[in-house]
Amino acid sequence: MPKTVYDVIVIGTGAGGGMAIKTLCEAGLKVCALNSGRRINPARDFRNHRMPYEMKYRGFGDPRKRAQSYGYMDNEYVGEGIWEHGITYTTAPGTEWMWPRCHAVGGKTNFWGRSSARFGDIDFRAATLDGYDVDWPMTYEEIAPYYSRVEKMIGVASTVQNRPSNPDGEYLPPMKLRCLDHILQRGAEKVGAPYLPDRIAQLTRSHNDHPACHFCGNCTDGCDTGSFFSTPWFLLPLAEKTGNLELRTNAVVRSILVDENGRAKGAAYIDRDTRQEVEIYGRAVVVAASCVESARIMLNSKSRFWPAGIANSSGQLGRNLCDHMYGDIGHGYLPQLLGQPSFPDNVSDSTIAWMPRWQNLKNPREEKFIRGYSIYPGGGCGEFPWFQHHLEGFGSELKRNIKRYYPTPVGATIQAPSLRSDTNYVDIDPEVKDIYGIPVVRVHFQWDSNTLQMWEHAKQVWAEVLRASGGELWGAAEHSEPPGYSLHETGTCRMGNDLRKFVTNRFGQTHDVPNLYVCDASVFLCCTDKTTTISILAFTLRTCEYMIENFRHGSHG
Quick one: CA dihedral 539, 545, 549, 550, positive or negative? Predict the structure, then answer.
């Protein structure tokens, strides 16, 4: 029988893959999408408003399984088989790396924190401003219209803030600041730090046939009403409506196939159910498996044309790995709130306010570090009083103290970008393979001194804000979370104009293989102080419309 040749094969269904699938299908192209896990059934796989005391392990999950997990989100709020168990990567000596991997359709968009600030001109021209690395091969003015289209598509709640480091966008009404936020905001004003509503892809009113958030407060374990952006709720239904999509689940991609000219002609994957290898064919291939996984697939795609991995004539595939440092920079309490009644104000299981970058905007070389970080403050009455280990007492005395302090504790998390470094990269482990016989990726990574200086600076700033707010500081973590924790890694397929130094061009198209495109954060030059998801969506929309034009002109790349 003649083999089916799709117009485009898309590897991955997260932010980049989902946007690619929708955009290409709506343009009339026949798309086959590959996803390494199963579909999610929100009614079965999400908590569905159950309380922790209704679960066998009180929401924490089976400790025997958690001990085997490489993720931190694997708990009773989420269904079985969504987060990865087992060896999926290795680390080089001296490297600590946490790589939580969601294999379900939609990937990490099912569980992300939803912060959705745009990259700005200060990010694209960072090298010009501070002399480190290189500028991006595009300007903010080029990508701004795509940000606007994405914001209108998915719904982002915030306010117009007129900050040079954080461009404003097209917003729904913001989530309201809580009592604790107003107190901290006044303290931040005294210190000279901004304290503003976050840009958050969570609906404060009905939008594009999706209901407004009803504030059940467990969002990072999935939403069963589709009130924040995720691929399964917002993008895949529109793609499936066109009749142009075939979605294959439980398909673990081994490599990209090439033709007699070294161009991409399809993909080989392992069917999880049968353990058999399957080949599919397409006129173009989009890799959108996430930064590290996309690099693994491409590095494993070796042939006589590409002995070091497909599209790797520059030798930069897998290099330039960057990540966000996350960590507790300080926790304490606000005495003003002692005695107040408990109120469920931890409304979105995430931050509703943030302290965006304000450092080094005019004189980036004057601080001890270059560029800048953001801070996400938090607090309020969640389901479990996380602060209990800071209190003294036992039994009834401890319970009284917990109840007394319940509305008062606050804390903050840093989001600090690492700088590009030749020593931070991924390659293929020469010995270790996964359960499907595919060579695994090996991570080499250390925090740079610039990021560590941001960590120390942030702890000082937050302590000043808390004290200026009339609060008392209990302490701060001695160490940040390990690299990889943020799920915001970037850089392994960096974009640039010079094919000798960059893997992809300014449209995410690989220099070496014109019908091979990359649509995830691996094309970003580095991390910024913002999260990556909305930028992945905007960049992917731009890439796919460029690809569609190529198809219209009779070229697949």
Answer: positive
